[in-house]
Amino acid sequence: MTTSATPETSPSPHLPRRLALPDFPWDSLSPYRERAAQHPDGVVDLAVGTPVDPTPEIARNALFSAANAPGYPTAVGAPVVRAAIAEWMERRRGVAGLGDGEVIPTIGSKESVALLPLHLGVRPGDLVLHPRAAYPTYDVGARLVGATPVPVDTDADPVTWGIAEDAPVAVVWLNSPGNPDGHVLSVEQMARIVAWARARGAVVISDECYAELGWESPWDTQPIPSLLDPRVGGEAGRSGLLALYSLSKQSNLAGYRAAFLAGDARLVGAVTEVRKHTGMLMPTPVQAALVAALGDEAHMEVQKEVYRERREVLVEATAAAGLVNDPASVAGLYLWLRGPKSMSAYELVGAFAELGIVVAPGDFYGEAGAGRVRMSLTDTDERVAAAAARLRSSEAAALFAG
Ligand SMILES: Cc1ncc(COP(=O)(O)O)c(C=O)c1O
């Protein structure tokens, strides 16, 4: 078997050049996974937020029906796709009147998070602001274009961020509900950030892939607001604003790579140009699955109940073990836990591994994650029940007592 060329053996003295990327964090979990796998009742994997429940029939059938697809799809997607996105944004997110040039399907949303700075022309020297405890790809996307990622407390008033008036802020990323912390931004919080960004000529992009998963008051009954909500953008409407959404979690379509972005037509147009040039096209069968899934609420409701029950079980069991969930973690797919004593994130990960449970250290999500772990709701009901039983044991109480 051949191995990939190292710089020593490469025919080019220059390539591959190392990009300014951080180490892929998940690799550091291997020893904890191995420890957890030794549990006599098997491992419970609550580290990666990858869905485990079946892809809904309606999406599978649509994919299958569109399997005969000899021609290229278009970058903007079929008209029926754009119409389905606009209709869903109005029905579920309160964003009416999105026109054809204001939406585009994407191949999952992670590629948008990583590549939007490139697509929008963010340059070296520009600042890309993102939440303090955040999905690592906002940072990666900034680094790929040589820009400077800056973590800021997006829950707080932007005047507290300490960013100079004349700083070259290009993008402000929001993520509501947040991964990993489950925080939700209100209309007022987002409106304040939008006004601040507009005054600096910066674009605001909101990653909203957990928007359907609200658990605690008021988000158990009220829809979680979108950045594109007319109350956020005010008179300037959607100017300078983009929102991302993904069907990976709400519809168990992570394997299909089905997502979209919506907002300011000038920004969507710029993104579309690059996607055309680079062949970033959502496959035709996936477009069909996206349309089917967006048009059906029944499967979403069923899936939401599954997550609600798993969350309740895990909230109760982690509390019984003395762990404390962030009180502002009110939505999304994760618990954001700290220990009863001051344990580091990796000490907590180690204690969970003794119980055969894998969780992610808060450090993966930036310095604000120190002393915390992220626990996802994505293992089967049977595995979640096994984790809960272990967390209620005296062994767990002793492990987390430090
Ligand atoms: C905050 C956030 N954004 C984006 C993504 C990417 O999701 P996908 O590429 O499956 O749409 C994830 C996945 O976990 C996420 O947590």
Automatic annotation (TrEMBL):
<keyword id="KW-0032">Aminotransferase</keyword>
<dbReference type="InterPro" id="IPR004838">
    <property type="entry name" value="NHTrfase_class1_PyrdxlP-BS"/>
</dbReference>
<protein>
    <recommendedName>
        <fullName>Aminotransferase</fullName>
        <ecNumber>2.6.1.-</ecNumber>
    </recommendedName>
</protein>
<dbReference type="InterPro" id="IPR019880">
    <property type="entry name" value="OxyQ"/>
</dbReference>
<dbReference type="InterPro" id="IPR050881">
    <property type="entry name" value="LL-DAP_aminotransferase"/>
</dbReference>
<dbReference type="InterPro" id="IPR004839">
    <property type="entry name" value="Aminotransferase_I/II_large"/>
</dbReference>
<dbReference type="GO" id="GO:0008483">
    <property type="term" value="F:transaminase activity"/>
</dbReference>
<feature type="compositionally biased region" description="Low complexity">
    <location>
        <begin position="1"/>
        <end position="12"/>
    </location>
</feature>
<dbReference type="GO" id="GO:0030170">
    <property type="term" value="F:pyridoxal phosphate binding"/>
</dbReference>
<feature type="domain" description="Aminotransferase class I/classII large">
    <location>
        <begin position="43"/>
        <end position="390"/>
    </location>
</feature>
<keyword id="KW-0808">Transferase</keyword>
<dbReference type="InterPro" id="IPR015421">
    <property type="entry name" value="PyrdxlP-dep_Trfase_major"/>
</dbReference>
<dbReference type="InterPro" id="IPR015422">
    <property type="entry name" value="PyrdxlP-dep_Trfase_small"/>
</dbReference>
<comment type="similarity">
    <text>Belongs to the class-I pyridoxal-phosphate-dependent aminotransferase family.</text>
</comment>
<dbReference type="Pfam" id="PF00155">
    <property type="entry name" value="Aminotran_1_2"/>
</dbReference>
<feature type="region of interest" description="Disordered">
    <location>
        <begin position="1"/>
        <end position="20"/>
    </location>
</feature>
<dbReference type="InterPro" id="IPR015424">
    <property type="entry name" value="PyrdxlP-dep_Trfase"/>
</dbReference>
